[in-house]
Amino acid sequence: xxxxxxKAYTYEELQAKVQELGFPKYTAQQLFLWLWxxxxxxxxxxxxxxxxNREILKNHFTSEVLNWERTLESKDGTKKSLFSLLDGKKIxxxxxxxxxRKTVCVSTQVGCALGCRFCFTARMGMKRNLKFYEILExxxxxxxxxxxxxxxxxxxxxxxxxxxxxxxxxxxxxxxNFGFKIGQRHITISTAGIVDGIYQLxxxxxxxxxxxxxxxxxxxxxxFLMPINEKYPIKELMKALKDYTRKKKSRVTIExxxxxxxxDSEKDAFLLGKILRSLPSKVNLIPFNPFPDTNxxxxxxxxxxxxxxxxxxxxxxxxxIRKSRGSDILAxxxxxxxxxxxxxxxxxxxx
Length: 351
What we know:
The chain is α/β, with parallel strands linked by helices and 351 residues long. The chain has two domains: 4-62, DNA polymerase, domain 1, CATH 1.10.150; 66-350, Aldolase class I (TIM Barrel), CATH 3.20.20. It has ten helices and 14 strands. A ten-stranded mixed beta sheet has the order 3-4-5-6-9-10-11-12-13-14. A two-stranded parallel ribbon has the order 1-2. α1 (11-20) packs across α2, α4 packs across α5 and α6 (195-203) packs parallel to α8. The chain is elongated.
């Protein structure tokens, strides 16, 4: 008889399963604490569970989800790890150490279907969604390798809102007292603009942080950079974001990747401020992180500062210029990839 994967069970499902096996219901809590909070996969080491029950668990379940393959370290301290899944597919996760925060950036899909032109992951295409336990295992393994984790961001490979159910299961266990015990405001979900997902999150019981990858205040430019804009144009995005901020009583983060000659003009800065000034938000300006075979370039440091200054004249909230982290090991925003794929058009010549 093949063994079941114990991590494939949510807390409620595991409660029912252990009772089916004849164990007390509270065994599920013990197992969750060992598996997710303490990071122990070996049933024989779960010492508060009766020895005979540990043998039953060992014979009935397996706990292997993914395998660590390698870690690359950036000169700025950022670390990127490559993991292989049980079906042979691969994903990447990033650890970003700061003085007070230790952040893990996790993937939610193998590849991505959205085809954003400034994103290296788009070259892979879409392979499959990750299960919630494959998402969580990235956090567990990065914690094992690098130590305690304070923040989790869903900004790695894939679009989280196209895997909404599994992402929400992962968030539940990240936040649970029996799981990782990470506060909701220390969890951020980033979307390329899946309006349905924004509305769903607004209706959920969670008050995690929401980030939107916007990248242009003009539909024609945004559609060129991000084809998903054809389905969910900027006007619909703003309506959904305002609904979210009203229901959650919290601001959203606007991620804006600055690409030289594409979305960094004075007009772009003015229009961006105009569409955002009635939205409780903050703006992160991110100079484009180059990757192989792209024609895009980042603006100079002075050009980025000028854009921020222009934006501040029409936008009343916080503007930050995000320092690039890990770009020398392709660990920055939009640089994750695990398979070489045929080149897709992504240069300014196609604008």
